[in-house]
């Protein structure tokens, strides 16, 4: 969005100032649980819930999903015929979480998946990035600003179910991401760029 404005209005001075995550997420002591993949947001097509559910159906039964959010109305019914009902048994729904409870989810997650079709930040991805959670996400909105492929996650083309599945499989087999860790150097860079100090200086 920043580049778009600079190109469209070359005489304007345009600054990119991120709304940064709570500092609590910077200090999480990670203890990833194998095969625990986090999804944050309304569970439906806009956020790519259908892509994630189809990917989960093709992954080993040991892989399970934790959704911080609720299914959008009619979503489960719309997925009939695309995934077996048993796949839903591998998804745990959490709602109404405060900051401390969200930090606990980031502490335990092996990966975060964000297969969104349309987005801005998104805040949850920034929180995961500074917490040191590898992110598998679609290449839309601000995700490419926060996810460095091969260093703290992987990106795939928005709306591509095969790409989503392939990226999750690659992440689970990755020597760092599969253990729920990221490149330490990039983690330091992202924590600095998404810090309250950096935001305050920018303003």
Describe this structure in words.
This protein has 203 residues and is of the alpha/beta class. 36% of the residues lie in helices and 13% in strands. The mean pLDDT is 96. It has helices at 2-8, 49-58, 75-78, 99-108, 123-131, 143-146, 161-173, 184-193, 196-202; strands spanning 36-40, 64-68, 91-94, 111-114, 135-138, 153-156. The longest helix is centred in the last third of the chain and has 13 residues, at 161-173. A six-stranded parallel beta sheet has the order 3-2-1-4-5-6, with helices on both faces.
Give structural attributes:
single chain; 203 residues; alpha/beta; globular
Tell me the series of helices and strands, N- to C-terminal. Answer: HEHEHEHEHEHEHHH
Tally of contiguous helical segments: 9
- Helix % is 25-40%
Report the principal-axis shape. globular
Q: In percent terms, what proportion of residues is strand?
A: 5-15%
Spatial sequence of strands, sheet with the most strands = 3-2-1-4-5-6
Give the integer mean of the pLDDT values: 96
Q: Count the E strands.
A: 6
Largest sheet: 6 strands, parallel
Q: Return Rg in Å.
A: 17 Å
Structural class: alpha/beta
End-to-end CA span = 18 Å
Instruction: List unreliable stretches of 5+ residues.
Output: none
